[in-house]
């Protein structure tokens, strides 16, 4: 009986893959990638030798692999491209953010970092014109009670007067605006401490981890964990004047200050635009364990990790660079998003250094979706290296190389790129593998959440 969710060609290919003699090995490869939706294909060989004796300890070639290829995870952070690799990226981001909140002995971040002033702040974009929304009153300005999933939410009430050009230019300069905000925040902290900025560097350090999120209207905003440390970072206690109240007041002042403005010059028929943050500013203290009034470390880390794998998909835009505007018709891009993309096309020759058309699929935004200050916590690179070291140790044990120290082992290898992706049937099978792995991970995560809740209950006792 055929699967009603699969078309006949995909089903035929699926049966071909599942019935092949080397299916088990193909399944093993895809399991190792985490069910990657677009794996990298390599061909080549590797030989492991003992440097002293010249003895060959291990030999491997892709000649015996399914299709003569080794498949590796693509590593794409975007959930729209590869849910499996995005899950791994989100997990790394979660650990990175939480380590900067709760500490991590493996990363030399002490648990005393919990005692540092830290808040979770959301900085939003200004208005570019009224949009359909769900206000507290329940009734939009258009007179409608919009359901939560109404596609009209975030779209302009009057497209003829909405500032689409301003919206994409703001997105394009949002990273510059954050940089000015961070600089001004250091000045505000120094002012409240009654010291100079040079003295601030000698007594305290501002640390942060942030993530960008697209609102439904297509405007970018930032969620940020902001913390005050001592001058050497998280292992160093902050000065006595550094409190959560001082940090909160300084953030509000930095957002409101005239210095925190990015001015885009006039060009042809486009006016000069001074951009500042929007009026909506949310700042919440972060608590180790929740009491219902403040946001918790785990909630913050989960929230940041969630948006680290997203781009502008919730606006209906494409997840790849746009070659021609005709692509918007083929992909049925919504009218509001289309107008933002068309604004990028119109503005691109006016501001060539901003590369607006190259980033039109991101509605002009060209910054990093997640970033952190240098001493906030560990790095994604360190987390990836830890994972690689763990896998290397597993491989050494499997190959019975534990008796050989790394200094006495020589590895020779030759690898060639041979393509990427799946056939239709492979894609369906890989998605099933990914779902099974996700179920196992969700079960483990629930167990961890229960453990943390129990620790929190003991803490309050």
Whole-number average pLDDT? Answer: 91
Provide the structure class. alpha+beta
The tally of strands reads 12
Radius of gyration: 26 Å
Major sheet strand order: 10-9-4-6-5-11
Order of helices and strands: HHEEEHEHHEEHEEEEHHHEHEH
Number of helices: 11
Largest sheet: 6 strands, mixed
In one word, what is the shape? globular
End-to-end C-alpha gap: 58 Å
Q: Which regions have little confidence, pLDDT < 50, spanning 5+ residues?
A: none
Query: How helix-rich are the residues, as a percent range?
Result: 25-40%
InterPro entries: RepSA, RepSA_streptomyces
Pfam families: RepSA
Protein name: Replication initiation protein
Q: How would you explain this protein's 3D organization?
A:
- It holds the Pfam family RepSA.
- This is Replication initiation protein.
- InterPro entries: RepSA (IPR046828), RepSA_streptomyces (IPR048241).
- It comes from Streptomyces triticagri.
- A hairpin with a 5-residue loop joins strand 1 and strand 2.
- The chain has a domain of 262 residues.
- It has eleven helices and twelve strands.
- The longest helix has 37 residues.
- Helix 1 packs across helix 11, helix 3 runs antiparallel to helix 7 and helix 4 packs across helix 6.
- The mean pLDDT is 91.
- With 461 residues, it is α+β, with helices and mostly antiparallel strands.
- A six-stranded mixed β-sheet has the order 10-9-4-6-5-11, sandwiched between helices. Strands 1, 2, 3 and 12 form a four-stranded antiparallel β-sheet that branches.
